[in-house]
Structure formats: C-alpha cells, structure tokens
Amino acid sequence: MADAKIVIIGAGASGIAAATRLLENGFENIIILEAENRIGGRINSVPLDGGFVDIGGQWVHGEKGNIVYEMVKDLDLVTPSSLPKDPGMSFFLSDGSMADKTITDRLFAIIMAVKDDKDTAGKFLGSFAQYITIEYKKRVLNEFGANARILELSEMVLKWFQKFMVLLNPAETWDQLSTTSHYVFQPCEGDQLLGWRKSGYRTIIDVMTKRIPDPSKQLPLEDKILLNKEVSQIIWDADDETHDVLVNCTDGSAYPAHHVIVTVSVGVLKDIYATCFEPPLPEYKINSIEGVPLGTVNKILLKFPTKWWPDTMKDISFLWSEEDRNALLDEVSAGPIVNGKSWLENLFSFIAIDSHPNVLLGWVNGPTAKLVELLPDETVIESTMYMLRKFAGRLYHIPEPDVIVRSKWGSNPHFKGSYAYVNAQMEKTKASANDLAQPLMKNSRPVVQFAGEATHSTLFSTVNGAMETGYREAERIISLYK
C-alpha cells in the first residue's frame, strides 16, 4: 500500500483529514496540492491583538456526534460561549432606542419555534418564507391580539429573521428555501457555540496532525504539502502502467497518481469542471455540481480601543422602521445597491466574541455580500459605524475602531463562496450531496474521489462535516487495499 500514489487537491479540513487518516494506515506516497499560500481552506484564523480571530469557521457546533468535539473535548481547547443561551437578542431600533426586551424575547422565541416546527412546516404547501410568515403572524396574533405597537415590532423582527435565515442558509433571498430543504441539515446535539480558547479553529489542524497533545507524535504531513499549486487539469483515464490519473498544474508541473481526492469547494467545481476533467464528467456528476449551491456570507470584525458595550449585552441587532429604511439611501450612498436596497440592510447584527473583549463581529450576506468585498476598508468602517451609531449611539458613546478585519470568500477564486446549503431548486433538479460525493471509477476502482463540506448530505457548511468526508474518502482507499 505504501506504493499507492495519492494526490489530494486542497489542504483544508477535508484534505488534511484524508491525508492524516491515510498516513496513520501506512500510506506514505501522498502529495497535497494547495492553491493558496496557506493551509486550512475555509478555516482561517488570523492574528489580532495578541491572539487569533476566525474569518472562516469559528465555533464547534454541537457535541454529540461531532467529530471535532470528540477529538478535543479532553484537551482543554474549547469553552462554552458566553452568548446567551435563552431565546432573545438585543434588538435596537433605527430611531436609536432599544426595543422592549421582554416583548422582543417573546417574539424571537415564537419565530424560532415556528422555524423548528418541522411537523407543521411539512404540512404546508407553499415556500418556507410563506410558511414562516403565515404561521408566525398567526401565533403572534394568538398571543398578543391586535396590539398595534407589538404587531409593528413583530414585523421588524420578521424582517430581521429573514436575514438570519440567509446566514444559516446563504441564499440570496429566503424565497429560495423550501419547507423541506431547510430541514435537511441535521445539527449535532449540544452547545452550538463552543469557542476555541487560544488560537482559533486552526487548532483542529494541530489535533488532526497529532502535534497536539504530543508534538513528538506529529504525523509527517508538512513536507507533503505544496502551496501555490493551482490545478488546471485532471486526466482520469491515463493509459499508463505507473498511474491511473494525471494532475496538471498551471505552473507546468504534473503529478501522476493512482487516486486523487478532490476537496475544492463546489463553487470552484462549478467554475472548472467543464475544462478541468478529461474525459468529461458523467451527467449525474455535472448535475450535482451545477445544482448544489454555494452561498456567500462575510464577516466584518471591528476592534475598538475600549469596550463600550456592557458585559450583559452580547449582541446589537438592527430593527428598521419602514420610514428609516426608505431614507437609508439618502443618508448613506456608499457601497453596493441591489434591487433598490443598500447593502447595509443585509448587515443585521454585531456580536461580542469571547476571545477578544474589545471586538464586535458582524455579518453581511444576501445579494450584496460579494459586492461588499470590493469596497475599501475605509468605506466599510464608515458605513458600519453609521449603523452602530444610528441604532446604539444614543445609549452609548461609540469610538472609532482601531482595526478592521474582513473575509472575502466570494471573490477568492480558490473558494468562490463560503459554504453550501440546500435550496428548493435542488429538489427540482435532483442534485444531491450524495451524487457529488460519488467517485469516478476505472476498472472498478475509485480513481477520482470527492470530499469537502458540500459532499456531506446532512452536515454541509460545517468543519466537522468537511472532516468526516475526508475520513470517508481515505477509508475508501484503505478498504480497497485491505
């Protein structure tokens, strides 16, 4: 088995998982080709203020059945988040006041209960957006009656919730979701916001390679990773006694292999499949690549000279009145506008993060997410500070931030987006993660295999899902040689 040549394309969570499992089982002839100048893929922990912040994967989502948690739970590497576990957010109104938290906590609890009510949703014949809207309004009326102020507040919470759903399922609008597609994802039970104590999510790479907890047992992976290696072609019917597949790179280098494990994002696959694979891919594989969507969500982290928000407040979530929403473009014209709406409407919350007490983390998603990546830092700072001061500036003195850190997943040609999700269109085309994961076979042997979070049928969008797929493809090779 040591003679089997294996090329892994991508040094993200799934690629490193595959490589470490193969090394542990005696496969030594391994090369990882990584297009970026770093490893980690969509794990990207960057230095900030003496520590690290994550502009990619950030939390360990769940405990039971979560392979990441199982690997680190006894190593004192993760800690429960201090974010409130009770239903509710700190909702600020666009007139600068804070909404009545007793009421908004209840509205939030109602809409989350509607979201999680799989049985009621399954009987609804319309879209997911229609289901949420109708069922939520019905439950609000049942509880609060025709109280005009509460009904107005409930509409604001509903519009905020639309953007929250597009964070969980990074479509451009929540109209692209169906009542069945939303429930395909199966979260692991337990704390959904376990944070890393010291060095961010990149710590899991050291755990996989066994550098943690004992550096003397570290797997010899570093010398097998080649950075700045962008693949241009995968010839998977090579007629050569020494190899089954030939991987060509844009720098002119070539790597023969018996097995290739492709771990690039489905967004990259969409971009390259027509020209990269020789012979062309089978139709079912093309259908899955074209049909499995990859959305874009980006992070904006602002570090302030002092912590200006109280310890009891873990988030600042924005509720717009219609009047203020309509006036937004007159007040802030900088940045992309889509369908007559400013990108700032897709900036829906900032939260405090445990590792950095002076840092707020915000998300931008929806149809403007990729466009915001093209803005200079100065414009993003000016616009986000407008939001924070408009909504919270009456209650708090908000200084200018010292540092801004941003992700730009959509415009990076080696990712083309943040993470996969399931939408209504997939149901029509019958595209699936399972088809995306099927290997290309030659003489009844897998010669090109596919891993990565988008190839996991129930844990897509997660690091633990990505790692599981890397282990899955490594085991496919291991079982073949047994």
Automatic annotation (TrEMBL):
GO terms for molecular function: polyamine oxidase activity. Pfam families: Amino_oxidase. Transmembrane segments: none annotated. Residues 14-478 form the Amine oxidase domain. PANTHER family: AMINE OXIDASE DOMAIN-CONTAINING PROTEIN-RELATED, FLAVIN MONOAMINE OXIDASE. This is Amine oxidase domain-containing protein. The lineage of its organism: Eukaryota, Metazoa, Ecdysozoa, Arthropoda, Hexapoda.
